[in-house]
Structures are given as C-alpha cells and as structure tokens.
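Hey, resending since the last one bounced:
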Amino acid sequence: MAITKKVRQFRVKSEHFVNGRNAQERVLFFVLVVCSILLLWNNIIFSPIHMAITSNNFRVHELSSKLVENKTKIAAMVEKIKSDPLAEKRAHKVAMAKKLSLAKDTFTRMTADLISPLQMRDVLESVLSESGGVNIVSLTNTEAKRLVPSDPTVSLYSHAMNVKLSGEYFPVIAYLESLEKNKMKILWGSLTYTVTTYPKAEVMLLISTISDSEGWIGV
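The structure tokens again:
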C-alpha cells in the first residue's frame, strides 16, 4: 500500500511538472521517461531473467545427458546378461538395479525444488493475491514435450504455460520478483512487455516446469 501511494504521488507530481512545460520540453521529458523505463527494465527484469533462463537450460541439458547415459549403460548390461545369463545373471541384475536407483535419485535431486505441473496455476494465483495492481488475463497450456525425443523410454517432459498479465510497471515488477523468490521454482522462458494505455501495460510470459509425467498443467 505504501509503495502504491508513493507511485500515485509521483505520478501526480509528474503530471503537474509536464503540464507546466511547453511542447518541446514535454517531448524531451517523455523521451527521458521512456529511456529511464527501458534502463530499469533491462537492469531489474531482463538481465536477471536472462541469467535464470541460461542456468535452467544448462540444468535441463545436464539432467537429460545423465539420463541418456544411464539408459545406455543399462541397455548394454541387459545385452550382456542375455549373451551369458547363467554366469553373470545375478551380478548384473544387482548392478542394473543400482543404476536404475541412481537415475531415479538424480532426477529427484535435480527437480526437487521445481513446481509440479498441477500446482502451476495455484502458485500464480497465490502470488497474485499477495500483489496489488496486477491481473491475470489468460493462462494457456502448450503441448508437453519430451526432453529426450531420441529415446522414447526416457519419461521426462517439459510442461510450458503462456501467461498474459496486465498492470502498471512497478506492480508488474513486484509480481515477477515474487514469482522468482517463491520456494516452488519455475523455469523462465520468454517475456515481452508492451505499453497499452500509459501507464497500463500487457505482459506475455512463458514459464515451464519438468516432470516424469506427460499430464497437462492444471488450468
């Protein structure tokens, strides 16, 4: 509430300041405001989210590589057991079980803090209830995608959602920061910010998570 009041007071003072200037000064003032907003957008929102996207992409690649590597080792062990089942059957069975357990533990560890697909909508609305001045216009699922399409036996899927928001600049920033700090993490995709009727803006956000199920995000 205090932040909203300060923003409202700043907007009133800005309007008085602009109304007291001639046309050239108003144009110059508008250009300075736009440049300031773009600078804040780059430093506060775009740069941190870009870093988060890069980190998440590396994390997904690492997880996919480990799963494929484990699947390859397990397949090789199975073939070896088939070729000489009587001599090495027990030993290889135990070793294969350990590999499978390791693969499962790796997946659990690397995705432990990620939100589940069914919780996506609830988290978005929960954070929204704690932030004023922002509205969710629409939530749209995209088709679940396999992270390792070359190996259909690896059940690992990316679940993405397009989120359309509306609100003023500072409330939108506060909402996005709250999502980023939430204990149930999401993976950040693309983000666009378009001013509709100043100071109102429209934000298109692509977020996602990872699970071992192909089920849709609950909306």
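The beta strands are 134-141, 145-146, 157-168, 187-195, 200-211.

Sorry for the duplicate.
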